[in-house]
């Protein structure tokens, strides 16, 4: 097991593994673990998605007549990051392109993953820098998995996502990891999504250009009042995914993204893929998500 970094305040503590710069623990003031701890349904906790989000057709990146094998969600989640800063409340880790990454993704980059706690809030910033001489096309995403049920003794069906803004009542479907046509999303009053395992029977709920910049993940008591909730927000990201396994998986992933999987039937030049982030030489972009416990 890699050496892990622990940061914390009286209100929240977090643990980060340099393998993938992955958040592996999130506890509240009472010591309750709020992050999925991995297991048979899904072995990860909160992987960093870079340089793509989702899948490419045939797991193939095409550039200027050449083909590169790049699998779902990219390689950052499987690479060791180096520590560049550490304090009791903040840790920053870095991944830089090398021969191995360029064999799969032929672009130069520096990727920083920064974790910081204040009060009862964890802030996670991903900073992508184009360190090359060509435009850097890429996707960036977060994939944290929170415990579901969120509170002991509460049924999974007694949970809801409450969006910060009114959302469209549909999501994109997922077909073999690629994006298919829109399908209905059963929102109440445009903002409340009642959670259940069957919601994820057809894979993730993919919300392109989501209107909200925040949501609440809420466990509800018998009277409908919140028993426990997580306040979740994001900046810089454009899209949102919600995901769980459809049967018996005790976690819910709340995933802010910039970029998504390729549409079904699209297999063109990678730089022309719909929805990518494009960084000019020397340009950087920071994308942030926060969770308050």
Q: Write the H/E string, N to C.
A: EEEEEEEEHEEEEEEEEEEEEEEEEE
User: Would you tell me the structural class of the helices and strands?
Assistant: mainly beta
Low-confidence stretches: none
Q: How much β-strand is present in the residues? A: over 45%
Biggest sheet, strands in spatial order?
A: 7-8-9-10-25-21-20-14-18-17
| Cα gyration radius (Å) | 19 Å
CATH top level label: Mainly Beta
Number of discrete helical segments: 1
Q: What is the annotated CATH architecture?
A: Distorted Sandwich
Can you tell me the overall shape?
globular
User: Would you tell me the overall average pLDDT?
Assistant: 97
Enter the CATH topology name: Beta-galactosidase, Chain A, domain 5
Q: Largest sheet, described in full?
A: 10 strands, antiparallel
Distance between the termini: 27 Å
Summed up, the domain count is 1
β-strand number: 25
Oligomer: single chain
Q: Provide the helix percentage.
A: under 10%
Describe the secondary-structure layout.
Layout: E1 5-8, E2 12-17, E3 22-28, E4 48-49, E5 60-63, E6 66-69, E7 82-87, E8 90-96, H1 99-102, E9 110-118, E10 121-129, E11 136-138, E12 140-142, E13 145-147, E14 159-163, E15 170-175, E16 178-184, E17 187-188, E18 192-194, E19 205-207, E20 214-220, E21 226-235, E22 239-243, E23 251-258, E24 277-279, E25 284-292
Antiparallel strand pairs: 1-2, 2-3, 4-12, 5-6, 7-8, 8-9, 9-10, 10-25, 11-24, 12-23, 13-23, 14-18, 14-20, 15-16, 17-18, 19-22, 20-21, 21-25, 22-23
């Amino acid at each position: 097991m890699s050496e892990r970094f622990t940061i914390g305040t009286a209100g929240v503590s977090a643990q980060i593994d340099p393998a993938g710069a992955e958040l592996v623990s999130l506890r509240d003031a009472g010591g309750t673990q709020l992050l999925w701890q991995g297991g048979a349904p899904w072995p990860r906790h909160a992987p960093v998605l870079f340089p793509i989000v989702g899948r490419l057709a045939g797991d193939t990146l095409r550039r200027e007549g050449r083909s590169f094998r790049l699998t779902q969600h990219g390689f950052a989640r499987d690479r060791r990051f180096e520590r560049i800063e550490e304090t009791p409340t903040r840790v920053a880790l870095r991944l830089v392109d090398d021969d191995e990454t360029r064999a799969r993704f032929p672009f130069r980059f520096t990727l920083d993953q920064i974790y910081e706690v204040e009060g009862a809030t964890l802030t996670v910033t991903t900073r992508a820098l184009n360190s090359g001489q060509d435009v850097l096309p890429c996707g960036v995403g977060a994939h944290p998995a929170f415990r579901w049920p969120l509170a002991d003794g509460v049924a999974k069906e007694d949970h809801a996502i409450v969006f910060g803004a009114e959302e469209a009542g549909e999501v994109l479907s997922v077909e073999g990891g690629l994006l298919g046509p829109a399908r209905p999303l059963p929102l109440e009053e445009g903002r409340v999504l009642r959670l259940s395992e069957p919601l994820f029977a057809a894979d993730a709920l993919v919300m392109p250009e989501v209107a909200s910049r925040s949501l609440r993940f809420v466990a509800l008591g018998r009277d409908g009042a919140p028993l426990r909730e997580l306040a979740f927000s994001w900046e810089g990201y454009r899209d949102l995914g919600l995901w769980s396994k459809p049967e018996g998986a005790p976690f819910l992933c709340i995933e802010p993204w910039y970029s998504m999987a390729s549409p079904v039937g699209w297999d063109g030049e990678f730089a022309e893929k719909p929805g990518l982030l494009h960084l000019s030489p020397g340009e950087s972009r920071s994308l942030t998500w926060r969770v308050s416990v």
